[in-house]
Write a structure and sequence with these properties.
Structural class: mainly alpha
Shape: globular
Helix content: 40-55%
């Protein structure tokens, strides 16, 4: 991927925080203690993890949601 494409990627500035953007994009369906998570995502830079095996034969389009959330969090300054 060229540097121009990567530099052009950013989160939508119309949202107050990344949590609101993820919910608007339909990338969050349900979560426990949403207020706590929203505050943590706004107040500090978090390290996040998602579990899947990218070399598995069963990797499918459904895993894309995890990748989209990871990329949005990374663009917001959090660490994979």
């Amino acid at each position: 991927m060229s540097a121009d494409i990567l530099n052009a990627q950013h989160n939508d500035d119309t949202f107050e925080n990344i949590w609101q953007e993820l919910k608007w994009r339909g990338l969050v369906h349900v979560s426990t203690e949403e207020e706590v998570l929203e505050k943590a995502l706004s107040d500090e830079k978090l390290t996040f993890y998602t579990g899947y095996d990218p070399t598995a034969a069963s990797l499918h389009l459904g895993h894309l949601v995890q990748l989209l959330v990871m990329r949005r969090l990374q663009l917001a300054g959090h660490y994979p």
